[in-house]
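can u do me a favor
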C-alpha cells in the first residue's frame, strides 16, 4: 500500500469536499428550478417589488404566495404580498408594510386559514372590513376577493364569502382544488387571473 504524505492527503480531501459541495449545490438548484411550489420565489419577488413601489399588490395567504403574479397577469408592477398560513388577523398586522409600498390598488384574498382554524366568520369579516377601511383612508383602491372552496368545508366557505361581499368572485369549482383539498390547481389560477384582469389592466401603468 502506497502511503500518501499528510499534506497531499489533506489537499485531496479538501478538493473532494469542494467538488462534492459544488455538485450538491448544482443538484439543489436543479431541484429548486423544477419544484413548482417553491414558496421562497414569490416571497423574494414580494420583497424586491415592495422596494420598487409596485402599482398593484396581491395580498393574502398561500393562495396568493404560490403564484408568480407579474408572469401570470402580464403586469410587471404587480407585487406578491402573500404569506402562507396568514389569517385575516395577520393581514391587519401587516398593513403598515402594504401602505408603505404605496400601491394604487390592493387585491385582497384572505379567509381560508380563518376557516381552517375555526375563526368565526364575523371576526374574519370584521378584520377584512378594517383592512378595506384603512387602505381606502390612504387613497388605495381595494378589491376584496372571494376565497376558493375548501373541499369538505364548502358550506363554511360559502357562509364566509357571503359575509365578505367580495367585489371579485373567480368561478372556482371543486375541480380547481388540489389533492390536499385546499390549494389551487393551475386551472384555478387561470380563472383567478381572468377574474382580476380588468382591475389589473386599469391600474398597471
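np, heres the sequence
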Amino acid at each position: 500500500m502506497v502511503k500518501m504524505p499528510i499534506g497531499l492527503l489533506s489537499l485531496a480531501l479538501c478538493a473532494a469536499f469542494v467538488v462534492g459541495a459544488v455538485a450538491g449545490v448544482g443538484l439543489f438548484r436543479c431541484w429548486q428550478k423544477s419544484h413548482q411550489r417553491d414558496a421562497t420565489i414569490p416571497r423574494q419577488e414580494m420583497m424586491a417589488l415592495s422596494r420598487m413601489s409596485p402599482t398593484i399588490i396581491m395580498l393574502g395567504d398561500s393562495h396568493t404566495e404560490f403564484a408568480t403574479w407579474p408572469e401570470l397577469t402580464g403586469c410587471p408592477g404587480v407585487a406578491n404580498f402573500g404569506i402562507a398560513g396568514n389569517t385575516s388577523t395577520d393581514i391587519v398586522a401587516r398593513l403598515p408594510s402594504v401602505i408603505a409600498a404605496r400601491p394604487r390598488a390592493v387585491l385582497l384574498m384572505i379567509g381560508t386559514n380563518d376557516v381552517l382554524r375555526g375563526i368565526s366568520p364575523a371576526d374574519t369579516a370584521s378584520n377584512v372590513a378594517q383592512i378595506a377601511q384603512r387602505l381606502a383612508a390612504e387613497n388605495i383602491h381595494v378589491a376584496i376577493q372571494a376565497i376558493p372552496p375548501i373541499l369538505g368545508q364548502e358550506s363554511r366557505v360559502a357562509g364566509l364569502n357571503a359575509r365578505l361581499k367580495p367585489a371579485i368572485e373567480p368561478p372556482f369549482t371543486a375541480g380547481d382544488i388540489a389533492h390536499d383539498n385546499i390549494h389551487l390547481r393551475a386551472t384555478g389560477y387561470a380563472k383567478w387571473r381572468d377574474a382580476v384582469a380588468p382591475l389589473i389592466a386599469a391600474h398597471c401603468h
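Confidence is low (pLDDT under 50) at residues 6-39. hope that helps!!
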